[in-house]
Amino acid sequence: MKIKNGQIYLEDVPVTELAKTYGTPTYVYEENRIRCNFRRALKAFQKYYPNFRFFYAIKANNNLAIAHILRQEGAGIDAASVNEILLAKKLGLGGTDVMFSGNFLSDDDIRQGLESGVIFNLDDISTLPRVLKFGKPEFLSFRLNPGYGQCEVGDFVCNGGPDAKFGVHPDQIMDAYRLAKEAGITRFGAHMMPGSCVRDPEYFRFITELLMDNIGKVGKELNINFEFIDLGGGLGIPYKPGDHVLDIDEAARLVSEVFTEKIAEYGLQPPRLMMEPARYFVGDAGYIVGTVHSIKDSYKRIIGTDVSMNTLARPAMYGAYHHIYVNGREDEERKPVGLCGQVCENTDFWVRDRPLPENISLGDLIVVENAGAYGYAMSYQYNGRLKPAEVIVNGNQHWLARERETIEDLVRNVTVPGHLLK
Ligand code: LLP
C-alpha cells in the first residue's frame, strides 16, 4: 500500500479505480507482497538450514489464484480437510507436496485422505487403527501437542498446551510411532503446530527444542529415520501501528541452531526441516476496500461502512485489531469515533473508539489492513449479506479473482418442499 497526494494505492492501482471497477466491499491482494514475504522467509531459513521447505496452510486464504502464487514460489500445501486436498489437486499438487493435517476425522475423511496419496499427519494415536482399517499410508507423521502453545490473537486460537484439542500427548508419541512401525509403515515425518501469530523468535527456538526432544527419543529407540520435521505455522505479523515485526532471520537462526544440535544429540539422520505458515505470507498482502454509507450522531458518533462482521469476522470473533485508512483523509485532524458494518448484531460494532479523520464523510473509501489471512476464508452470509469480491493487483494491473456473490448464492442449495409453496 502507498499513499500519494492523499490517495491510497494498492501496488500501483488507486483504490478509487478498484472500488469503481469491482464495487465494495472487495478484498484486494498485492501479488508482489506475497512473493516478497515468501522469499524473505525462505531465504532466512535456507541460509541456516538449506534442506528447508515451506508448505502453505491454505485454510487462511483458499483462493486458488493466491495459492498458485505460492505454488509458483515453490510451496507445498498444508490441507486441513479432504476438500483442501482437492484444492491442492486443482493446483496440480499431490503426493509428498501435500500434507493432510485434519483432526477428529470421520471414517470417510480417513478413506479419502488415504486414497488421495498425500502425506497423512495424524492428530491422535486412536486414529492410527482406524486408518489401518482402510489401508496403509506410505508416508505418515503424527502431530505432537508439546504441552505448550502461544498466540497473539486471543486465547481460543492457541493450538498447543493442555487446553488445546490438537495433537498427540507426549506420553503417547512413542507408542504412536511404535504401532505405525509395527504396522509396516516405512516413511515417517513429525509435526506440531502449537501457536499462531507469534513475533518472538525465541518461541520458535523453544518449540523446536520441545519437538526435537520428543522426536529424538522416538528416532533413537525405534530406529526411525524421520524424513521431515514440520514446525507448523505461527510466524506472526504486526497488526497495530508501531508493533514490531518478527525478526525472521533471528527466528530462522535460533531454530536451525537448536535443530542441528538436537539432530546430533539424538544421532538422527538430518531430516528436511519444514514449516507451514499462512499469515506471514498472505496476511499483510490483503486489504478490504469498503465504503462509508452512513454516519450516525447519537450517544456516540458511529461511522457505518459495508465492511461488516460477515465480511471480516476476526474483530467480532477474537477482538482482533485491524488498522483502517481513509482514502484522501489520512493527513486530516483525527477524532475518536466508532465504526461498524451493517449486520444486526452489536458485535458488528467492531471499532469502538478510534481516532479517525474528523471529516470522514459519506462515500469515502476505507481500506482495512492485514486482511489477507483468515479474512475472506472466514466470511459468511449472515443477515443475507453476501460474500465480497476478491481481486489481485500487480503493478498497475488488476484482475478479478473471485466474483462477488449474488442472491443466487444465497439460495443455491435450498429446496423448498412442495407443500410449503401452496
Ligand atoms: N498449520 C496448521 C496445522 C494450522 O492449523 C494452521 C493454522 C497453520 C499451519 C497456519 O498458521 P499461521 O502461520 O497462519 O499462524 N483464525 C485465526 C487463526 C487460526 C489458526 C489456525 N491454524 C486468526 O484469524 O487469527
Question: What do these coordinates show?
Answer:
The structure is a single chain. This protein is an alpha/beta fold and 422 residues long. Helices cover 31% and strands 25% of the residues. The protein is built from twelve helices and 22 strands. The strands form four sheets. Strands 4, 15, 16, 17, 18, 19, 20, 21 and 22 form a nine-stranded mixed beta sheet that branches. Strands 5-6-7-8-9-11-13-14 form an eight-stranded parallel beta barrel, surrounded by five helices. Strand 8 (119-122), helix 6 and strand 9 (139-144) form a beta-alpha-beta unit. The longest helix is centred in the middle third of the chain and has 22 residues, at 201-222. The mean pLDDT is 97. The structure holds ligand LLP. Ligand LLP binds next to helix 10. Residues 57, 60, 78, 101, 153, 157, 159, 193, 196-197, 232-235, 276-280, 314, 373-374 line the site of ligand LLP.
- What is the name of the CATH architecture of the largest domain? Alpha-Beta Barrel
Shape: globular
CATH topology of the largest domain: TIM Barrel
CATH level-1 class of the largest domain: Alpha Beta
**Domains (count):** 2
By CATH, the superfamily of the largest domain comes out as Alanine racemase
How confident is the prediction overall: mean pLDDT? Answer: 97
What percent of residues are in strands? 25-35%
Please summarize the sheet with the most strands.
Answer: 9 strands, mixed
Instruction: Work out the radius of gyration.
Output: 23 Å
N-to-C span: 54 Å
Low-confidence stretches: none
How many helices? The count is 12
In this entry the ligands are:
ligand LLP
Helix content: 25-40%
Q: Helix/strand/pairing class, anyone?
A: alpha/beta
Tally of strands: 22
